Amino acid sequence: MSRTLLCAMTLLVLMAGCSKPKPPEKERPVEPQATQMRDAMQAPVEQARKAQEEAKAAAEAQRAAIDAATSTDGG
């Protein structure tokens, strides 16, 4: 009998703990932190992309200068 009583009490406690969730009070607009976080993450990526483009342009200019110097000497 004590086992039945224990099971019944446990069931009552579990059922009492499982109540309906409360609906949200109001829908709040998205905090601007999300865009700030995205911008903070995107800034180093953009900086690296610009540095890569500059390095590529400098390499092309150097290659063109070397080609120009070797083509005028080549004779």
From TrEMBL:
Residues 47-57 have a biased composition (Basic and acidic residues). Residues 18-75 are annotated as: Disordered. This is Lipoprotein.
